[in-house]
Design a protein that fits this description.
By secondary structure, the chain is an alpha+beta fold. The protein is built from 3 helices and 3 strands; from the N terminus they run H-E-H-H-E-E. The chain has a 3-stranded antiparallel β-sheet.
């Protein structure tokens, strides 16, 4: 997969997470729900969330894929 495609997927995922949580850093979402919106398989969703966590844009809250935005979220700025 090309770098631009990965970037596009990450941005789509982050936008969907922002939509689901209404940009609220205190709200939770399931990573699987955000990934399914764009047809990402589980492996792609895992890779995207791990990357975004590493960038400080989201954090994992519980087993099973519960995540939330962080205050570092570039979309809300």
């Amino acid at each position: 997969m090309e770098v631009e495609e990965k970037r596009r997927q990450r941005l789509q995922f982050l936008h969907e997470l922002y939509r689901i949580t209404d940009g609220n850093e205190n709200a939770f979402a399931y990573m699987w729900t955000a990934g399914e919106r764009y047809g990402f398989d589980r492996d792609t969703t895992i890779k995207i969330t791990q990357y975004l966590q590493g960038e400080g844009l989201l954090k994992f809250q519980a087993l099973g894929g519960l995540i939330q935005l962080t205050t570092n979220n570039a979309i809300s700025k």
